[in-house]
Amino acid sequence: MKEILFDEIPSLDLADFTSGSPEKKAAFVRKLGEAYNNIGFVAIKNHGLGQELQDKLYASIKKFFALPDEVKAKYERPTIGFQRGYTGKGKEHAKGRNTGDLKEFYHVGQELSTIPDSDPVKEEYPANVWPEEVPEFKDIANEAYRTLENAGRNMLKAIALYLGLDENYFEDKVAYGNSILREIHYFPIENPDSVPADAVRAAEHGDINLITLLMGASADGLQVLRKDGKWIPITALPDQLVVNVGDMLDRLTNKKLKSTIHRVVNPPRELMHTSRYSIPFFMHPRSEMDLTCLDSCVDEQNPKQFEDATAGEFLEERLRELGLRK
Ligand SMILES: O=C(O)CCC(=O)C(=O)O
Ligand SMILES: [Fe+2]
């Protein structure tokens, strides 16, 4: 595979994969593999998440984050590692850091009522937490969750084909998977001197999950670290979702597909008093998924780089490293 230094992340049309000719489908898979080998990020259109739903989603989270901190704190669930409901300002820090990120966020997981009683994950997952002050929040978040989960399943089919696996390799692993919709508010800071000098909106990190799907944010700031060390700005156009590889897929493929480091930088000092909102969907498998490197990704040139682990074990370890789990 040739090395490419992209100046921007490649754009693809998911419709080429889902309803295109066999040639278009194959070209989608090839371009996706090329992008994930080199920069770890693509932007896709025709993903199914309409503008109207995105607008409603942003409106509902703006309403929630505008509530007083004491009210939002009612929705914090530290005993479940903040995996549902609200996480307050500065509580999460990137792996390997102590300074908290300049953000607050809200986690939405699988809606338990949609899971069949016979499936053990129904007992495993915590129930969602819904803010009574914003009654529309629940239905809008659930709809976005389902739509993004579907788009993610299609992306994983393309990834499976690229890896030479059966197209449906990931299907049973992500059915009622432990995915999380994270609604983020990078809050306004009136006095930039009041926060630690090294505090940033989101310090550089790789995502934990298989893939992340990210709709357009309300402001600039997201950057991805290219192989040559240069930070490349990322903006999703209004009709695009940015989709990147997370650490679980990086492990499974023994780094054939790369989880690329990214960050959200602070705005210039005079704009620190402005908010930024963004909403990533972290696509996780079920916790029992085996993340042992695929045999096809290990050979003499590429010796196995990871200890065997399940998705659940890996997630627990990372939540402790992020300060979310004691
Ligand atoms: O806010 C963004 O644009 C990206 C956030 C992010 O990378 C994350 O929450 O993992
Ligand atoms: Fe991220």
UniProtKB/TrEMBL annotation:
Q: Which domain of life is it from?
A: Bacteria
Q: Which UniProt keywords apply?
A: Iron, Metal-binding, Oxidoreductase
Q: Which InterPro entries match?
A: DIOX_N, IPNS-like_FE2OG_OXY, IPNS-like_sf, Oxoglu/Fe-dep_dioxygenase_dom
GO MF entry, a single one: metal ion binding
Presence of the UniProt keyword S-adenosyl-L-methionine in the record? no
> Which Pfam families does UniProt cross-reference here?
2OG-FeII_Oxy, DIOX_N
Which residue range or ranges hold the Fe2OG dioxygenase domain?
A: 176-285
Annotated family: Belongs to the iron/ascorbate-dependent oxidoreductase family.
Report the protein name in the record. Answer: Oxidoreductase
Question: Which species expresses this protein natively?
Answer: Mariniradius saccharolyticus AK6
